[in-house]
Amino acid sequence: KYSTMLHLSPGEIDFITEGILQDIRVDGRGRLDYRPFSLETGIISQANGSARVVLEGTDVLVGIKAELEVPSNKRPNEGRVEVSVECCPSASPEFEGRGSDVLNLELAGTLERYLNSSATLDLKALCLVPNHHCWVIYVDALVLDSTGNLFDALSIATRAALINTEMPVVTVVEGTEANDFELELEADSLVPLPLKDVPVFVTLTRIGNTAIVDATLEEEECSNGRVAFAVNSKGNICTTQKGNGVMSATQLQQMMLDASVIGQKIIELMNKVIQEEKSITKKYGFLHSSLYK
Amino acid sequence: MTFRSGSYRITKRKQIVKSTQENYLRDDIPCGGPWCMSCEHSRGLEDSDPSLTYVLPNTDVLLRQVDWLINPKTKNVIILQSVLGAVKQEAAFMFYRIREQVEDPEKYLYVFSNEHHRQAFVPKDSGETEADYMERKTRSAARWYQNHWGSKVNFLFLVNDQEQKKQALKEGLHVQTVHEYVRSLGDAELEDSLIGDDSGLDDKELSDSEISSSQTIYYEKYLSDAEIKAKRQEKIVFKGPLRMDRDNFLEASVPVDKFELDVLIVGSKPRNRAMAGDMVYVEVLPESEWVSKSGVFLDLDIPLDQLHNVVDKAEGLLQKESHDASDKQPTGKIVGISDRHSFRRYCGGIDMSSAVDVGGITQVLFEPMDPSVPKVYIKSHRVPEFVGKRIVVSIDSWPRTSKYPLGHFVKILGDIGDQMVESEAVLIQHGIAYEPFSAAVRECLPTPPWGITADDMLRRKDLRHLRVTSIDPPGCTDIDDALHVRELPNGNYEVGVHIADVSHFVQEDTPIDREARARGNTVYLVNRRIDMLPSELSTDICSLKEHVDRFAFSCIWELTPNAEIVSTEFHKSVIKSCCAHTYQQAQEKIDDPTRQDPLTCDIRNLNKLAKILRQRRIDSGALQLSSPDVKFVKDEEKQENVDVELYQLRETNALVEEFMLLANISSAKQIVKFFPAFAMLRRHPPPKAKQFKSLIGLLNKLGYQLNLDNSKVLGESLESICKPDDPFFNELIRILSTRCMTPAVYFSSGSLSQSEFHHYGLATPIYTHFTSPIRRYADVIVHRLLAASIGAAPLPVQINHRNVQRTCNNINRRHRMADIAGRDSTRLHTLQFFKGKIMVEEGRIISVKQNGIVVLVPRFGIEGKVYLCDGLDTSQFWTLDKNTQSVTSPDKSIQLQVFGKVTVEISMDETKQHSPKVVFKCLNPPIHQSSGTPYTRVVKDKKPAAQAKQEQTTSQVKSDSQVSAPQKKEGTPVQKRKRAKSVSKPQDTKKPKK
Fold first, then answer.
1. pLDDT single digits (tens) A259-271
2. Contact (Cβ atoms closer than 8 angstroms) between residue B727 and residue B649
3. Whose CA is closest to A292, among A277, A281, A279?
4. A178 touches chain B (CB under 8 A)
5. Predicted interface score ipTM higher than 0.90
6. Portion 258-277 of B in contact with A at CB < 8 A
7. How far is residue B815 from each of residues B198, B430, B762, B800, measured CA to CA in Å?
8. CA distance B778 to chain A (A)
């Protein structure tokens, strides 16, 4: 549970829970309806890739920076992804000081888990010289504001930013000494990341006996369980992250099926938006150029 | 309005950086013409006058013709901001030179911010290369100027070659190549300052079809970047620095990690225009074509028309020898050049015999003083002026169709042979800054009269009551150390080393500090000293002169009578030296038993302790190496060197040295304890077996062992090498071993692990330089660190690992350059000394080849080649036995072996006016005839103290660290000057200062 500065009265909780049982949520959505979100990529000029997702009140900015480093000892012939998430105090007073540390780590850890997988990203292709030089993809996410469903918003922004990422082409030549390599930059040629199938998170929040997607802060307050499923474009579940609460196997199965369908839809939509965005030559940055539902 | 663009680049530290640029486009940027009504605040150019032409050069012009730009006659130039940026990226030093010019109001140079000008600016097209974009930007700015000024002002766009001119003409610009423009001015001096011609070809690597058939192609075309990259990945082509062979100008080598031996490059064609010090790409030939190093000497002095012959002969020789499979080594050819370090300025003279007329301009061959640099073609209208002069020439390019590189004349230094001119040439050659200190630096000096204030006394320990004395070479004015000793009631001694407190006057990051950091050290030439600090500081305010109060940094120990350290303290202090001795005076005091005054007793006590310290150091393995050190005895009136003698060492030299070493070690311990991450230390890495390989092999043949495991066993094995009938033999081996050592270097303690701090030569686990802050910048940093460690001053903000390491790299380089410059200076003076003399001396053979031997003459500390036969007639060659390193004459009557004694006649060959040289002839064994009556040298007795004045004019090149070492730099004689006959190498001690 996060962002619990809200204090709902028993009456309010009852109202929300009862409504959801009848498939009507406070903002008029059905149980499996997403809020409209806006997505924009390539807005940070210094980064290799970036994206911003505004899911109504939840506002997430992701910047991607590719740097050359030494591969880890365990995987000497692979590059890696490192994620850091920072929940700004602007999103909630609770994030003041070290208040957001635990949440930051949970979010970053979960994202890192599915990003550092060869099903998501061809990590071997990120390695230039085994044991010596590899690309490290730094994913830096900033949560500027939150009205619930951070996991999904972050994962959508991350996916969009990764697709938006352009990497300079580096060629390697052996240098004058052993284990010394010269790296040369191929002028003006940029390539996308060697992405495979990057999933997005679909979080199902259990309220009463049913589950909803894209819960608001109020709804999260009423929940008695939460599972986040990372779904890829084929609808496969890549990672799950279970929050608080208990649920039966049948319920879990149903949630999984719902997540799979919704996740696929989100990815489809995203791909469409990103494709359309490419045709827009003039970017304004930080303006919601379009809204999609 | 803003415009944004981004690009990637790779840094030296192998980081990829994306940089984004935002251009704020404005309407209010003036054109620079003071007459202009439409621009506000427009100034920078000279006021309009129909006779004036305002020129706008493009990037190529600025990069190639900087000598034209800085000529005082060149005025009214518009320099574009984007052009300036490109120059900075290409060659930072040129950028600074141009910027200096811009600041000069007399030059009327105006920098136009075209990147921010709404009309002049053009955005980059996608897919356009950086270079094309740069040209387009420049043309766009030129167009703007042309339209802005209209026909009432003479405006000219300047480009460097015809190709660019064509492009600009197409766009309707008033354009000329810089050559056309300068020729139209009709000024020979300006024309001389131009590089190359405007064909645009001299910088390009032409393919065979692009070269007209009338021209001779001397060299192979370099491979393209892509080919080199592919071949490097296949491991056929490697990258490395090119080193020239000292003995054979046709041989060079490139160290490549893959092979144990360096890759050999034989002949000038395979060397393919690479020069010493260049970073080259070398392609290794298949193993069947590998050859071995030749056993001949080849000198550059072979006349021009014979050169081909020589090359063929040399190559023929090598072919023959290549069957000798035992010492074949990787052989290769140069296929590309990564960094031209060698295209810079050189000093030398012209060879008038080579002068030819090329289209109205005289072309002549310039012969650099540095024998490893090829001759250079220069063209000038002023050639007759250069005869007999030392001139500076800059190398510009080396096309495939030219045997020698092309350069242009820069300036005349003065007459060849003039001592001051030759010294200046040495300084220029090694990039040593010798200009007087700037006004900004002088402003940092304390205002006279300088005195000690009460406030100073509060912060410092008053040690004026102590009997402090200094011992220095005669005539020393920059005294940076002094000593005191007193007996303590408990029977121990209190010994203090007091060092001039330079860091008090040189505050961090002031102009004076930056200047000292850039200079790195004081450079000592035979007849000139180039100070690191202005003389007000070095010879007065900082110098620990006698009978005056001076600031000092004191290191005070309590020592037991057995010279064990009980405690160490550091203080900022005020001292008053009671007497400044010379080494000789101090020695006389020690030796004279009738003298019992307190000061003499002090010196005797110090001497007693020093002897114990020295013995302990030697026992623990400090090395005693050697190389002959000479000084010139000068005739005061004639300003000529009348004799050369070896530097004499006294017990007192060792005394001072011993305590300086102790102070250095104590300070090193102190700063590492407090600042383990960035203490400035000095280490001497153990010698590399590779360097010693040939010497050890040779000694083994003679039945001697040389053990390198550590300095102690090396010292012992050196001790064991001696011939009872030949006392100099041991000395000779020491000289040769010294040359095989790796040099000692400064480093930041954060860059290495503790075990690597070791100083091999001194056999101490940790070492630094603390005792000569007046002449070495490293000591200044150490003083700052020490002051911070005792709380006397805050730690300067700029001291961190990165900066310390950077400073180390610079001063290591400066040190090396100062060393080479000192050596070159000695060589020049040796030359001077031999002028008009013929001397007969005993020498030692230090290397043998088929057509010659290298002889070291210990008395003068010089070495030279003795040719055993004339020319390159192989039938006259001697037989070389590589195993025993000996040569036998064709008639088997004479055999010469390495280390053998020979008697040589030394004289000077002045047949070539522009490059006189010393020639050696071998009289015994009788290989050559003596050419005249030997000059008899005046044998002088030991000089009495009264002759100190004469000694003042003697000079001796400093020795850096105990064993520090031979420079591995190829092409320059590897010769580290050490005091001969020293028990242990003196270091950090004194050198005579004028």
1. 999 999 999 999 9
2. no
3. A277
4. yes
5. no
6. 258
7. 41, 11, 19, 22
8. 29
